[in-house]
Design brief:
Rossmann fold, 3 domains, five-stranded parallel sheet, 14 helices, globular, single chain, GMP Synthetase, Chain A, domain 3
Length: 523
């Protein structure tokens, strides 16, 4: 368990895919918090952790199922404020004497909903219902519903499918809401969290500077006098991880930049030059493109490709670690969105979405122990940490680029021909975005080459070439994303350039899928 001098808020994870967004909202309020899966939160744990407040997360289970997730009963006896969210509300009502019933069509709610207040007011809702409409937009995702509130609780807000959408027992400072205030689709959710932590008496003294100090201390404790190799991709995640670890252990760190043959045009030279020009950290440039492309030959399943790439990364890092005396650790720029899509946080009960090359793709038996100082951060927080560490803007502002590289932007089998076509199309697309001054407005943009050929006509001749999809999204944390609203003029101009300048593509599409239901990358 992390030891810290800050007041601590405990988030008990019941398996929601957005539990970490709760922590994100709290960190925005400079409140130190930790997420722990419910099965790890024992009476002894609570005594040692000594939280100043507790939040029960949402989750996919039903409180009416035997063996469903529960907090320890001792949590209710600590005398600290508790906030239950969605499943967390239902478990609170069930444990304290209320009633929960199975969802029916009339009471289930998924997506946007509107909560209206009762005549009573609670401190939790200060700043809510202020726009004159008499209601607040929230994000619901529940089948079961509370049908009877527990003794001592009052109703403060209702929605069409949740007559007890907002409940509270002010005397014990127990609060419970059926919706998810942590997601962006509950626009005023941050205010609710702010009210809750104010009620709990948090001073808001946790900052990115404090995170930096804590991370450096933990790296030193973990590594000791051993040496670390860091997988450097040139993206903001691995760059921030490398600089942070270097600040912690200095010359004990060696960076390895692996060219797996799946990089964008001229990327290897740009990354190596950029890093060597800015930092005096030992850097090995490992050209392993033949190895990776050889192992990927004939593979089309996305999970198989990710697993192959993950294994080969470790094999390559292990090879170079064997050349460095005392190297026992591998450092990675793993972020929380990678973790939550690959495996539930800290062994919790959430559902796997897909493997990431540096998470689910790791082989079970690995010769190196992992150092992942960014594992609990979102992309924007990593950028904030990068600024705290003094990284150049050119590092911090780069669009995310996945570790598996172009492999997951090339659905189906990967060939050198398709990769070359993809590199050229992507270069044209990014050039267009920069020419129009849009690069810094967009979270991530790339081209995917599709595993289909289409008929076209060019110069009065028939063509039968690949189609490609342009992708550009805006996001704050990588957990949700919306497509970027390019003008039709921009899309038409870009499609014309790609078709004219990239031999092998005769059709261009634009992907307007949000996340969810899609993911940002294609595989």
């Amino acid at each position: 368990m992390t030891q810290t001098s800050h007041d601590r808020l405990l988030i008990i994870d019941f398996g929601s895919q957005v539990t970490q967004l709760i922590a994100r909202r709290l960190r925005e309020l400079n409140v130190y918090c930790e997420i722990h899966p419910y099965q790890n939160v024992t009476d002894t744990f609570l005594t040692e952790f000594a939280p100043k407040a507790i939040i029960f997360s949402g989750g996919p289970d039903s409180v009416m199922r035997d063996g469903s997730p529960r907090p320890p009963k001792a949590a209710y006896d600590l005398g600290v404020p508790i906030l239950g969210i969605c499943y967390g509300q239902q478990v609170m009502m069930h444990d304290l004497g209320g009633k929960v019933e199975a969802g029916e069509h009339a009471t289930a709610e998924f997506g946007r909903a509107y909560v209206t207040p009762t005549d009573d007011r609670a401190d939790l809702l200060t700043g809510w219902f202020m726009d004159g409409s008499g209601r607040e937009q929230v994000w619901m995702s529940h089948g079961d519903h509370v049908s009877e509130i527990a003794p001592g609780f009052q109703v403060y807000g209702t929605s069409p499918g949740a007559p007890f959408a907002i409940t509270a027992d002010p005397a014990r400072k127990f609060y419970a809401v059926q919706f998810h205030p942590e997601v962006h689709h509950t626009p005023n959710g941050k205010t609710l969290y702010e009210n809750f932590v104010r009620e709990a008496g948090f001073s808001g003294d946790w900052t990115m500077g404090a995170y930096r100090e804590e991370a450096i201390r933990k790296i030193r404790e973990q590594v000791g006098d051993k040496k670390v190799i860091c997988g450097l991709s040139g993206g903001v995640d691995s760059s921030v991880a490398a600089v942070l670890i270097h600040e912690a252990i200095g010359d004990q760190l060696t960076c390895v930049f692996v060219d797996h043959g799946l990089l964008r045009m001229n990327e290897a030279d740009e990354v190596v030059s950029m890093f060597r020009d800015n930092y005096n950290i030992p850097l090995i440039h490992a050209d392993e493109s033949d190895l990776f492309l050889g192992e990927l030959d004939g593979q089309s399943d996305p999970e198989t490709k990710r697993k192959i790439i993950g294994k080969l990364f470790i094999d390559v890092f292990q090879k170079y670690a064997n050349q460095i005396e005392g190297a026992e650790f591998l450092a990675q720029g793993t972020l929380y969105p990678d973790v939550i899509e690959s495996v539930s946080f800290s062994g919790g009960p959430s559902v796997t979405i897909k493997s990431h090359h540096n998470v689910g793709g790791l082989p079970e038996k690995m010769g190196l122990k992992l150092v992942e100082p960014l594992r609990e951060l979102f992309k924007d927080e990593v950028r904030a940490l990068g600024r705290e560490l003094g990284l150049p803007t050119s590092f911090i502002g780069r669009h995310p680029f996945p570790g598996p590289g172009l492999a997951i932007r090339c659905p189906g089998e990967i060939t050198r021909e398709k990769l070359e076509i993809l590199r050229k199309a992507d270069a044209v697309y990014i050039d267009q975005i920069r020419k129009h001054g849009l690069y810094d407005e967009i979270w991530q943009a790339f081209v995917a080459i599709l595993p289909v050929r289409t008929v076209g006509v060019m110069g009065d001749s028939r063509t039968y070439d690949y189609a490609c999809a342009l992708r550009a999204v805006n996001s704050v944390d990588g957990m949700t994303a919306d497509y970027y609203p390019f003008s039709h003029e921009f899309l038409g101009e870009t499609a014309t350039r790609i078709i004219n300048e990239v031999k092998g593509i005769n059709r261009v599409t634009y992907d307007v899928t949000s996340k969810p239901p899609g993911t940002i990358e294609w595989e």
